[in-house]
Amino acid sequence: MSAYIVDELTMNRVTSALAFREHTPSGNADAQAIGEELYAMNVCAVKARYPDDADDELPGPVGFVLGQWQYEDTLRNPRDVQALKSMHCLRYQCNEGDVPDSALYKWLTRQIGELADDLIMATPEYNAAEWG
Question: What letter does residue 25 receive in the DSSP assignment?
Fold first, then answer.
């Protein structure tokens, strides 16, 4: 498996969806802080995958530096399929080393499940399905 640092658009989509939903395990509710926590988790996972690479050699977008990234709300609806797919991408890129054991990774996984449930339950097919 390979891993890379996600681009700013993906991070903004994920951050928009998660900031809309709730605080992170560390208590952050601010979108910028949530994004920075997630970005730091992504970097830890990529460093676990490529321990011999210097920071400037890690796979990922050029110029995406922690502390220099500014959150931009990029989703019209933070409960949409694009948000879910971006969250899946980030989680996949963070599946290295001890990162999957972290509270933040587990929280992200729970948020993915909750958003997936929300999306499915909003479909006409779900609403038309028999209850009992």
Answer: T
